[in-house]
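User: I'm putting together a teaching handout on how multi-component assemblies are represented. Below are the sequence lines for each component of a complex, exactly as they appear in our records. Could you produce the 3D structure of the whole assembly as structure tokens, so the students can see both representations side by side? Please keep the chain order the same as the input.
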Amino acid sequence: MKSRSTIFFVLLAALCAVLFVVDIAVGSVAIPFGDVVDVLLGGGTAEMRSIVLDIRLVRAITALLAGAALSVSGLEMQVLFRNPLAGPYVLGVSAGASLGVALFLLGAPLLGVAISPAFQSIGTAGAAWIGSAIVLLLVVALSRRIKDIMVMLILGIMLSSGVGAVVEIMQYFSNEASLKSYVVWTMGSLGDVTATQLTLLAPVVVAGLAMAVATIKPMNMLLAGERYAASMGLNISRTRTLVLSSTTLLAGTVTAFCGPIGFVGIAVPHIARMLFRSADHRILLPATILSGVLMLLVGDIVAKYFALPINTITALMGIPIVIYIVTRKR
Amino acid sequence: MIKLENITLSYGSRTVLRDVVMHLGKGELCALVGCNGAGKSTLLRALTSRKDIIIDGTPLGELTPEMVAQSIAIVTTERIRIENMPVEDLVAMGRAPYTNWVGHLQDVDRDVVTSAIEAVGLSTFSKRDISTLSDGELQRAMIARAIAQQTPIILLDEPSAFLDIPTRFEVCRLLAELAHKEGKTILFSTHDLDSALPVCDSFLIIEGDSLRKLPTAEAKPEMERIFR
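Assistant: Of course. Below is the structure of the complete assembly, with chains in the same order as your input.
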């Protein structure tokens, strides 16, 4: 089985590298592929450099980080909750982010506070991050009291529905302009992240991934359930805190900057499991990162080609996989 | 090896066992019997979690989680389902208290895993995916995992439930071998007296809220009085 993993790792990494370059080559302005490569190697005109490096490279790196972050947070949630359908959003990360953004984009105008256009983008990201962080802190606090992990999952779903209802009320009373900015945010976008924002997004995602690496052994032990894991010396509450913090950093931050991108967290870990036929997270974690990067790069290329929001594409890619997972064994 | 002194156990608000005093020695195979809901699982759970349980002279509360994991291994009633996991990886989980932060297996660990799989007679299955195992084979794999944890004490909650009659006897013989040849202290709960009686050194009998330990010869008539 070792050789199978090696083959897939090489294959996936090569595909990611190719698609990364393709993602940079595709865009609304047609630039010949040779020129794109030229710019990446340090040449090209100033105008081309600005398009390729400041816009497309930033966007491709954002896709790469978002893919890795969302899929790894999904992997962690699925192991922690021992549920193949768990994902960062099931726990209310996107609900918290949506509430934050709704309060900012819809609530503020309702109260008569005007948002300057310059402040809107970073303010949206900040509101989303605070919203998802508050929800996950709540989840961490609750998970210390509530022993049953299924109850936590149900609470997450209830929380999402509750937030959805509140957001709908705000939408009902909002004017068209703020309503549109909110709806556009919910569609998700990899193109709104600026180079400056990337300098914040990248280190946070890397930190979240580093924490995920620290949960490799705990995740392997948790496969047998919390009781067995504890009997083998695992500190369950510390592991839960570590996993949930890692998820907040990964999914919360990506959602803050790119909007709620669905189905990556749920679907990608299963793709990794199917490809690598392994339950060992020393293999599954890097496999999930590569598969997630691949999925979002493909998604972004399609999104740019047809000028569609990324969220609809990941949904169309992810939903068949999820359906396959739930119908396969029964 | 494992000692309880005047311990009262409750499940929720209900007192299950009162003033338990009990001692299990090294190499002793003991069966825990009692009606459904009598407190067998509660007692087994308490043995790994209560601070005042004495393990080899030291209260559990004074041991780190790693030290507890190197003293007591468990086999629960839960039928675990993991996709894409070969038997040898499941058994290797038992090495967790000994491996580094990422769970890297050294040669020593691999030898322990191999001999644990051999001990339960699953050598030809070691590469097989655990989802393809029968109930009896999976139970043996779970016992192998506990063996690989290299603890002086193993606690098993109804290891023979869901198994056919020949496999029940086989599991009991395996436990007897571990206790009597390897010197492990083994306590398992069971409803199946037929397979437990020939191999056990002693019985822990729960009747009402009291727990008594009797050697097998004395336990047999007692249990016939209570359960038949």
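A couple of points students might notice: Residues 223 and 322 of chain A are 20 Å apart (CA to CA). Residues 46-80 of chain A form the longest helix (35 residues).
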